[in-house]
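Listing S7. Sequence submitted for prediction.
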Amino acid sequence: MKGRNALQAIALTGAALGVAAWTSSPRGRELDLQAFKALNRDRGPAADALFGGVTELGSIWASAGAAAVLAVGGRRRAAARGITAAGLAWLAGQGLKRVVGRKRPYLDDREGTRLLIGEPRATSWPSSHPAVLLAFVTVAGRELRVGALGRTGLAAIAGLVGVSRSYLGVHYPSDVVGGLLLGRAVGVALSD
């Protein structure tokens, strides 16, 4: 890892931890809850289906599938580096979940939260789905020499996965922001 990438990865990780700290304050918690309620609002069956489907793009299994497709297509280095980034983001996210220990929204507000998927096992902060996807596309995109517009589009998909996590009732928006920052930090750290 080059010096500039190391500093950027450290700054992104610090920003992610800052999000966690800020939302543990009363004002941060209140704003996070307001944003969650706005995102978790019922928008009908089409939105439920869209977000229910797109959320799975952030699973570690989706990254494994994408890596397999890349490897079969002759892009083994991109596949290996992408799945490594996704795996590291997942491991970091799972470790941080144990340290932070934040309850999921549906556990905090059983009456008002719309839970549209099965209850995840781990705690809430950070959201691993956007972290995993953003780490994968950051590293694989650079390895594949995807242009700036393409990388922006891939990052936007990771953001959409993050929105889906709040819409589906399993993460607060700050969990998603923390996950995106963590995924980007891993992606930057592993970039050449």
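Caption to Listing S7: primary sequence and predicted structure tokens for the chain studied. The chain has one domain: 3-189. The radius of gyration is 16 Å.
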